[in-house]
Amino acid sequence: MNQAKNQKLKSFVKRSLKKIDKRIADTSPIEKRWVTTYKNSLKSKFYNHVKNSIKKLSQSNLVLEHGCSIGHITQYLAQKHVIVFGIDQSFFAISEAKKNDFKNLDYFVANSLKPPFGKTKFGIVVGLNVLELIEPLDFLNVVSSQVRGTVVISDPYDFERGKESVKQRIDSKSLRAELIKLGFTLMQNTTRPSFLPWKLNINSRLSLHYKVDLIIAKNATT
Is position 57 within any domain? Predict the structure, then answer.
């Protein structure tokens, strides 16, 4: 709203924002701290492995990353693909991501189960480490409806989040089974679970060490 070029547009945006359900989590202090954590953890081997995997994918006209956070992988995708979008529920993360200067890349604060793209189809859809934050089966159905090409999904299956955890958990076997049921074919030797090291530096005395499973799958392109 503050970036609107004239008063008419500013008023329109203001009215539209008032219709959105008020959320507290996306602007909470903990979300702000997570931005710092992700910025301090970009050298994790996990990101290098993901980059090496998506580097093998053919160029796409439209790419979408769910749960893009501060945009590290989204920016990497923008170097090769024509138009790239990233969405995340964290206002602070998207604010940080928007500091990049890629002309073919933009971000939105949005719920992945209610993405703002209508019936648009993407050649590549990415969702890294979001399955404990978004109902997995619902998310897979959304992704399946969005993509005409390749999906890249990863997760450490960390569902011990108390009341913040999802209702229906998923594991490496059931995740692959669901993708196959939705018409996907597993690619790049991801038929078996992987254990990629993902280190998150919380502060100088604390870090989280995950072992992340990565899946790359493809469906019909027509």
Answer: yes
At 93 the three-state DSSP class reads helix
pTM: 0.87
Structural domain that includes position 106:
24-218
CB atoms within 10 A of CB 146: 20
Instruction: Give φ, ψ of 152 to 5 degrees.
Output: -125, 115
* Alpha-carbon dihedral 107, 110, 115, 118, rounded to 10 degrees: -70
Split the chain (222 residues) into runs of 10 and give each run's mean pLDDT: 77 76 64 92 96 96 97 97 96 93 93 92 97 94 96 94 78 97 95 96 94 94 54
**What is the CATH number for 89?**
3.40.50.150
Please say whether the beta carbons of 42 and 74 come within 8 A: no
If one counts the domains in the chain, the total is: 1
Nearest-Å Rg of the Cα atoms of the chain is 17
73, 51 contact by CB (below 8 A): yes
Residue 213 lies in a domain: yes
- Is residue 18 in some structural domain? no
CA distance from start to end of the chain = 38
